[in-house]
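FAQ

Q: What does a record look like?
A: Structure on top, sequence underneath. For example:
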C-alpha cells in the first residue's frame, strides 16, 4: 500500500518487430514509453556509429490515422443526426476486449469503403439541402408574382414600359395618389403582404421621368422577372421540383438508415484508430535505425514478469534484448512517474489523493492513512440507513449489470464502500430516511438511537472534535516518522513530536480541570505541554547560526498553535452536516404527514421521493466536498507535500470499451 516501485526498461529489437512489440506493450497498458533522446543515456555511441542508418521521424502514418479518425467521427455524427432511425439508436454496449482481439476486428479497407459511401451520402444531402433552400426562397417570391398574367420578356412594347416592384404598405395611398397625377399610367396590384404591396406599372416611355420621380420618392423596389413563362407556371414548376427534391432526400435518408447495421463496426474502428494514433505518437520517443530500434520506458516492478511472458511468448529470445535498471537519483527527482498501489478497499480513494496531488516517487502515499478517516467522516455527515442502502444497492447494480468505464467503476466502488459507514452511523443516530427508529420492536428493547441528533448535540460536537484531534495527531505522527527516516531528527521533534506533546498536554490539562477535577492531571499536562513548547522554540535556535533569528523562528512556530485551534473547529462540520441532513429529511416527512390522506398516498408519494432524492444528492455532495476539504487542509498539511507526475502508460483510448490484458478477459 504505497507508491508502486518503478524500473527503467530498455528493449532493443529488429526494426520489422517494432509494430508487433508496441502492440503487445499497448495491450498490457502498464509501460510508459520514455523519450530516448532526452534520457540520461549516452547516445553519442549510436549517433557516431549508426548515423547513416538513423531514421528521421515520419508523421505520415499518424496523419493518416488522424484523418481517418476525423472521418469516422464525422460519419458517426452524420448518421446519428440525419438517419431516420436516429431516435431509436442505442449506443454500443460497453464490453471488455483485449487489444489484440479489437485489432483483429478492425478491417481498414471495409471501414474506408463505408466512409466513402457515407461521405457521398453526406455530400448529396448537403447539395439537396442547399438546392432546397434556393427553391424555397424562389417559391416565396414566385408566390407573390403568380397572379401576374403577362410575361415581361415577351411583352416589350415600342412606346411603353412595364415595371414590376414593391413599396411599403404604409405609403400605399400616397403612392397611388401621386401616380394618378401622371397621365396614362396603368397600376395593377399583384400581391399584398402585411408590410409590402407588389405592383405592375404600365406607362408610356415619354413619361419615364415623371414615373421615376414618383417611385424614387416612395422607395419603389424594382423587380426583374427572369423567366420566359408565366409566373403561375414557374411557381407550379418550382413546387414540383421541390416535391421531387423532398422525395430524393427521403430516399437518401432511407439508404443512410441501412448504415445502422455498421454502427458497431464504426465505433470499434474509432476505438482502434485512437489506439493506432497513440502507438504512432509513442514511436516519436524511440531511436529508430534501418536495422533495429531502441525503446526505453518506465514499468512497475510487479509487471515485469508479465511483460517478459508476453514478449517472449511467440518470439525467440535471441530476437529481443530487454534489460531493467533501477532509477537513478536524478531520474527519481526529475523524471520518474508515480503510480499508486493499494488494496481493493483503499484503491477507490486514490482519486481523492489525485485530485489534490500525487505524492512524489520517494514520498509516502497518504491514501491508506486517509481512507479510514474519510469513511468515518463521510458516514457521520450523511448518517442515514435508508440513504446508505440506496448507495449500496445502486452501486452494486451498476457494478454487476454494466461494464463501466474505469473512472465510473472507481466512483461506484467508492460509494459502495462509503455506504457501509453511512448505514452504521444511521444506526448510531437512529435515522431511516429521516424517520426515527423504533425503540421497541416485537417486544424487544432496541438501543437506538445511540446518539440522538436532538438531545445529544453537545456529545456529537465533542465527538467531532475528538475525531479531528485524532486525525491531527496521526498526521503529525506520520510527519515525524518520515522526517526520522530521512535522518532529519531535530526537525522531527520541532515539526511533529513536540506538537503532539503540546496538544496532548493541553488536552490532559482540560480533562484534569473539567472532567476529573484532578490537580495531578493538570500538573502532568502543564509539564508535558511546557516541555513540548520549549522544544518547539529551542530546536530552531540550535539549527540557526543566528540565535536571535532562531528564537524568533521558534516563537513564530509556537504561534502556530492558533492554527491548530482553527483546525479543530473545522471538524465541527461533521456534527453540523450530520444533524442538518437528518433534520431536513425529518422535515420533509413531516410535510407529507400534514397532507390529507388522499393527497398523502398520491401526490405525497411522488413528493416524498423527489424531496428525499434532493436531500440525498445534497447530503452526498456536501459529505464528499467537506470530507475532502478536511483531508486536504487540516490533514495533508501536517505531513504531505505532493507534486508527483502521474504514470501515463501507452494504452488505448477506452472510449467505448475496456481494454484488458488477455489473462483478465473471458473467452
Amino acid at each position: 500500500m504505497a507508491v508502486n516501485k518503478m524500473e527503467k526498461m530498455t528493449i532493443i529489437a529488429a526494426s520489422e518487430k517494432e509494430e508487433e512489440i508496441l502492440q503487445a506493450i499497448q495491450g498490457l497498458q502498464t509501460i510508459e514509453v520514455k523519450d530516448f533522446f532526452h534520457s540520461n543515456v549516452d547516445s553519442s555511441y549510436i549517433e557516431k556509429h549508426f548515423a547513416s542508418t538513423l531514421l528521421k521521424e515520419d508523421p505520415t502514418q499518424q496523419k493518416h490515422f488522424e484523418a481517418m479518425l476525423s472521418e469516422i467521427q464525422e460519419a458517426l455524427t452524420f448518421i446519428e443526426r440525419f438517419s431516420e432511425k436516429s431516435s431509436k439508436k442505442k449506443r454500443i454496449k460497453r464490453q471488455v476486449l483485449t487489444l489484440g482481439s479489437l485489432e483483429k476486428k478492425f478491417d481498414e479497407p471495409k471501414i474506408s469503403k463505408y466512409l466513402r459511401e457515407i461521405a457521398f451520402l453526406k455530400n448529396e444531402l448537403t447539395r439537396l439541402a442547399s438546392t432546397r433552400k434556393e427553391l424555397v426562397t424562389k417559391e416565396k417570391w414566385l408566390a407573390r408574382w403568380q397572379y401576374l398574367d403577362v410575361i415581361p420578356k415577351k411583352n416589350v412594347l415600342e412606346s411603353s414600359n412595364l415595371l414590376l416592384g414593391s413599396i411599403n404598405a404604409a405609403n400605399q395611398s400616397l403612392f397611388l395618389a401621386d401616380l394618378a397625377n401622371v397621365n396614362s399610367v396603368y397600376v395593377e396590384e399583384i400581391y399584398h403582404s402585411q408590410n409590402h404591396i407588389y405592383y405592375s406599372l404600365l406607362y408610356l416611355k415619354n413619361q419615364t421621368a415623371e414615373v421615376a420621380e414618383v417611385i424614387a420618392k416612395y422607395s419603389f423596389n424594382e423587380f426583374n422577372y427572369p423567366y420566359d413563362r408565366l409566373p403561375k407556371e414557374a411557381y407550379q414548376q418550382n413546387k414540383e421540383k421541390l416535391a421531387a427534391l423532398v422525395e430524393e432526400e427521403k430516399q437518401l435518408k432511407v439508404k443512410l438508415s441501412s448504415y445502422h447495421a455498421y454502427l458497431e463496426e464504426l465505433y470499434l474502428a474509432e476505438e482502434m484508430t485512437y489506439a493506432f494514433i497513440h502507438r504512432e505518437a509513442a514511436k516519436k520517443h524511440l531511436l529508430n535505425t534501418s536495422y533495429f530500434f531502441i525503446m526505453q520506458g518506465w514499468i512497475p516492478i510487479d509487471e515485469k514478469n508479465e511483460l517478459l511472458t508476453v514478449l517472449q511468448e511467440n518470439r525467440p529470445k535471441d530476437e529481443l534484448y530487454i534489460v531493467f535498471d533501477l532509477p537513478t537519483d536524478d531520474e527519481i527527482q526529475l523524471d520518474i512517474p508515480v503510480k499508486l498501489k493499494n488494496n481493493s478497499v483503499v484503491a477507490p480513494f486514490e482519486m481523492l489523493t489525485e485530485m489534490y496531488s500525487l505524492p512524489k516517487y520517494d514520498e509516502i502515499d497518504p491514501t491508506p492513512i486517509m481512507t479510514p478517516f474519510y469513511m468515518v467522516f463521510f458516514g457521520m455527515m450523511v448518517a442515514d440507513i435508508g440513504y446508505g442502502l440506496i448507495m449500496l444497492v445502486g452501486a452494486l447494480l451498476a457494478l454487476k449489470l454494466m461494464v463501466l468505464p474505469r473512472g465510473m467503476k472507481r466512483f461506484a466502488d467508492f460509494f459502495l464502500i462509503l455506504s457501509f459507514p453511512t448505514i452504521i452511523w444511521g444506526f448510531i443516530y437512529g435515522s431511516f430516511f429521516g424517520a426515527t427508529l423504533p425503540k421497541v420492536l416485537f417486544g424487544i428493547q432496541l438501543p437506538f438511537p445511540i446518539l440522538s441528533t436532538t438531545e445529544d448535540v453537545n456529545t456529537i460536537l465533542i465527538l467531532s472534535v475528538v475525531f479531528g484531534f485524532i486525525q491531527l495527531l496521526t498526521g503529525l505522527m506520520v510527519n515525524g516518522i518520515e522526517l526520522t527516516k530521512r535522518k532529519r531528527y531535530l526537525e522531527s521533534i520541532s515539526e511533529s513530536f513536540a506538537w503532539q506533546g503540546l496538544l496532548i498536554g493541553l488536552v490532559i490539562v482540560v480533562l484534569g480541570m473539567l472532567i476529573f477535577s484532578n490537580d495531578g492531571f493538570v500538573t502532568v499536562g502543564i509539564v508535558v505541554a511546557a516541555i513540548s513548547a520549549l522544544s518547539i522554540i529551542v530546536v530552531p535556535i540550535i539549527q540557526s547560526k543566528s540565535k536571535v533569528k532562531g528564537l524568533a523562528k521558534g516563537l513564530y512556530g509556537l504561534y502556530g498553535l492558533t492554527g491548530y485551534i482553527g483546525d479543530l473547529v473545522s471538524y465541527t462540520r461533521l456534527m453540523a452536516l450530520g444533524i442538518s441532513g437528518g433534520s431536513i429529511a425529518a422535515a420533509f416527512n413531516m410535510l407529507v404527514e400534514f397532507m390529507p390522506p388522499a393527497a398523502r398516498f398520491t401526490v405525497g408519494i411522488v413528493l416524498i421521493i423527489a424531496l428525499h432524492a434532493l436531500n440525498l444528492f445534497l447530503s452526498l455532495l456536501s459529505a464528499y466536498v467537506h470530507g475532502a476539504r478536511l483531508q486536504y487542509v487540516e490533514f495533508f498539511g501536517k505531513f504531505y507535500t505532493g507534486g508527483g507526475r502521474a504514470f501515463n502508460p501507452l494504452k488505448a483510448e477506452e472510449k467505448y470499451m475496456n481494454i484488458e490484458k488477455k489473462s483478465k478477459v473471458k473467452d
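Q: Is there anything notable about this one?
A: Residues 150-229 form a domain with the Alpha-Beta Plaits fold (CATH 3.30.70.100).
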